[in-house]
């Protein structure tokens, strides 16, 4: 079969099918299609990607969501990573946390529909996987607990909360916090046939100059067995990762568990095992996330380091980080995908490299040299839709000529 006819056949085979009764059938996937992750993050925090603003009607919100799913399918992506717990809240009817304010403008107000349930159903109708994205510890993008819904767990348990950097966070050092966070997340896993649970890069918050994350009481109570506070903090995050992974496997064995951390584990000048970078942030030291361990130990199903830098960037060169991460994934059960900074393409505040529509396409070309790299995820849906300088169109033309099946 020639390349053009094969492509036409693949597109037809993946189109939505209707049975004689009018029900939607699952798309057929030709066995010979390539297998790779082609994902997009769909962020809801601060109405970043969706809904476009709070307070839209249920019909308007649904229509916008469907448009994002349609665009992902049209661009021959195969996975949408939807943020369903942006700030210790919910985009589904949760018995544990209030409805997200990013839906109605009022935290706790029922939007009149089920966004997560709709997203899973409609994604699957289009042959897309739906990964449910949860932020574990962020409570609010402000420091005033009285602005939270009266029913919010952070108001009922103020001792769980630490203000830091103008925001509120749950304290990862409290076992009761970790248990609650896991319970709130797993409610969605029980209720919906999500294809994965997804965490982003926010574990302990990124450092803010001149401020201290006050977990003294928790460290005094629980940190005695550790050589220092940093080791204790990393163990707290390790526990969250291991426990969540085990619970997801138990509750929904078909679902995966993936994490998208900051793209630099440690710089080589800090640790000889680290990458040839000079990044100002290191996830091991600043987020207390030992991302390299999670990969090498195979605790998680996939990792998507956020490699949000151009090829040749001095402090963190994409071309140096890809082989470093590929080496960490070698021999591990953890699949490696790469997070791509589509949002930088055409942004006038970015360097000249990001004004070139071909920059991201070159990323994919480079990554194909490394068999451990199983695909890419693009940040984010708003830029997939607008594609201001055609960078996503270039990726599609150069690399996504036919559909692909996401790895399992």
Describe the structure.
It comes from Streptomyces griseorubiginosus. This is Glycosyl hydrolase-like 10 domain-containing protein. Pfam families: GHL10. The chain contains 14 helices and 13 strands. It folds into 2 domains: 1-33, no CATH class; 38-399, Alpha-Beta Barrel (TIM Barrel), CATH 3.20.20.80. Strand 3 (37-42), helix 2 and strand 4 (79-85) form a beta-alpha-beta unit. The chain starts with a helix and ends in a 9-residue tail after the last helix. The chain has 408 residues and is of the alpha/beta class. The longest helix has 23 residues, at 229-251. It is globular, with a radius of gyration of 21 Å. The protein has an 8-stranded parallel barrel with strand order 3-4-5-9-10-11-12-13, surrounded by 6 helices. A 3-stranded antiparallel β-sheet has the order 6-8-7, with no helix packed on it. Strands 1-2 form a two-stranded antiparallel ribbon.
């Amino acid at each position: 079969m020639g390349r053009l006819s094969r492509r036409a056949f693949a597109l037809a085979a993946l189109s939505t099918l209707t049975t004689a009764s009018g029900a939607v059938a699952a798309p057929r996937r030709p066995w010979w299609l390539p297998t790779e992750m082609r994902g997009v993050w769909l962020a809801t925090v601060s109405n970043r990607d969706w809904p476009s603003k709070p307070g839209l009607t249920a019909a308007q919100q649904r229509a916008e969501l469907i448009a994002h799913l349609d665009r992902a399918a049209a661009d021959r992506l195969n996975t949408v990573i939807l943020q369903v717990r942006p700030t210790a809240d919910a985009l589904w009817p949760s018995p544990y946390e209030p409805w997200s304010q990013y839906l109605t403008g009022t935290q706790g107000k029922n939007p009149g529909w089920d966004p997560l349930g709709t997203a899973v159903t409609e994604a699957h109708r289009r042959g897309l996987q739906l990964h449910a994205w949860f932020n574990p510890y962020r409570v609010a993008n402000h420091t005033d607990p009285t602005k939270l819904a009266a029913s919010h767990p952070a108001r009922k348990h103020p001792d769980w909360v630490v203000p830091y950097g103008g925001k509120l966070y749950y304290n990862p050092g409290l076992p009761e916090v970790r248990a609650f966070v896991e319970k709130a997340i797993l409610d969605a896993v029980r209720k919906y046939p999500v294809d994965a649970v997804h965490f982003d890069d926010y574990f302990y918050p990124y450092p803010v100059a001149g401020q201290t994350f006050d977990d003294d009481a928790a460290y005094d109570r629980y940190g005695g067995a550790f050589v220092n506070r940093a080791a204790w903090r990393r163990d707290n995050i390790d526990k969250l990762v291991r426990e969540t992974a085990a619970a997801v496997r138990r509750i929904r064995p078909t679902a995966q568990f993936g994490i998208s951390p900051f793209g630099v584990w440690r710089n080589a000048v800090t640790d000889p095992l680290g990458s040839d970078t000079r990044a100002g942030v290191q996830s091991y030291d600043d987020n207390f996330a030992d991302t390299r361990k999670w990969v090498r130990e195979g605790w998680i199903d996939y990792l998507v380091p956020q490699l949000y830098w151009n090829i040749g960037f001095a402090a963190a060169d994409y071309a140096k980080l890809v082989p470093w991460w590929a080496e960490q994934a070698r021999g591990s059960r953890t699949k490696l995908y790469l997070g791509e900074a589509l949002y930088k393409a055409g942004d006038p505040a970015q360097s000249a490299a990001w004004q070139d529509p071909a920059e991201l396409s070159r990323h994919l070309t480079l990554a194909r040299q490394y068999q451990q790299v199983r695909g890419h995820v693009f940040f984010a849906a708003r830029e997939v839709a607008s594609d201001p300088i055609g960078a996503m169109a270039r990726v599609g033309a150069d690399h996504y000529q036919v559909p692909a099946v996401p790895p399992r």
